[in-house]
Amino acid sequence: xxxxxxxxEAMALLTDYYQLTMMAGYVHHGRQDTPAVFEYFFRAxxxxxxxxxxxxxxxxxxxxxxxxxxxxxVEWLRxxxxxxxxxxxxxxxFRFRGEVWAMPEGTPVFPHEPIxxxxxxxxxxxxxxxxxxxxxxxxxxxxxxxxxxxxxAEGDPVIEFGLxxxxxxxxxxxxxxxxxxxxxxxxxxxxxxxxxxxxxxxTMAHSWIMSYPDEKTAFQAYxxxxxxxxxxxxxTYDTAANGLPAALDVLxxxxxxxxxxxxxxxxxxxxxxxxxxxxHRTLTEAGFEDPLIxxxxxxxxxxxxxxxxxxxRINSWGVGTHLVTGGSEPxxxxxxxxxxxxxxxxMTSKMKVSSNIEKTTDPGPKRVVRYYRADGAxxxxxLLALDEELPAGKPCVSHNRVEYARTRxxxxxxxxxxxxxxxxRDGRRVAPGPDIHTIRAYAQERIAELTPExxxxxxxxxxxxGLSTRVADxxxxxxxxxxxxxx
Length: 487
Known about the structure:
21 strands; alpha/beta; single chain; 6-stranded parallel sheet; 7-stranded antiparallel sheet; 487 residues; 37% helix; TIM Barrel
């Protein structure tokens, strides 16, 4: 099934203008095919979060496999009067033919470690920066938010309700995809259901209730059409005095007619803790066992956790605005940096040096090795050079990225896993990508491996990401060299 809502030929222009000016410069100087390596990572976790859930890779690989400049795109660029003919004449033959290494989509990831590594000609690797960041930053942000909301729900189903508050149609579709990967059980977004195969769910709006003379008539009319599993919205006027009694009357009448469905109501306003307890007590006392009580109304993980502490009887949650927008974190700090380029026939490590030490990058293309203790919980990641071997049968010493003297040692008894896998070679997938249900299942398995301390909603344990001794030494030497050269 084709799940794109943008035509493939549009994606080459979904980039920042300076990517094209740099490409034109590389072509003019005959450098477009100079081998280069870029890495994608993020600098900081969202507030109060111990990890992120990597998402967006499947969409990115679809884009890269189909990346090209259509005749219309080339002519539009020509009309700008900016680009030389040699560049414009080169564009129709352009295809992305690079190599991409990435962590599996759904993997818990941490600051400053390479999540995606791109090898290719410098022009093609440079062009995809904006597209890559657009695809990965937003979906990783939303998948992470979804995971936190699901933690707060303590196993209750969470439905993504965010379409109407999302940042446009494409933002909504990306958010639905990411929220499902992060742990939501379904979405209200019908297009996401069709294109991505995500379960679609929903109840009714207040306008349905208001279009009838009273709530009881509205509920009866809805049950006439959808008798199997109706969820009755009971807060249009007065939940306790009108909505809940009307729902109970209708459900009891249907039960007398042989209806055997599960009683279900939704609360979208008011004191959700009090009203959910009232609804649960009213329905169970009337003989409706285990009623479904759906809660919504600008919820996020903090509000859900608070409602749980108050003993709310909500057992299904609809979360929209704060989920699909990232809530208090409007963007993830993901970046895409050059780490190596060919000079005089050999690959040379590159790094950015900044007065802000957190913005100083780690040099050279790197692998990521994750260590696991015996119970399956990850305990730390180490960044190694591509050709660097782990010390066989010996401990691996890892250095803090900034304070090299701070170290952590991982013993040989720990399981070690190479985290980046080759997913694209010569611009084509090395194997068919997993479907979204497989990605979601993988994400839930990996998230469950994290310690409870790392999953805390507040003040989570900080995970170790460090450099091998070789990478740390190279970084220190390169900082010294570049600092001296700048004097």
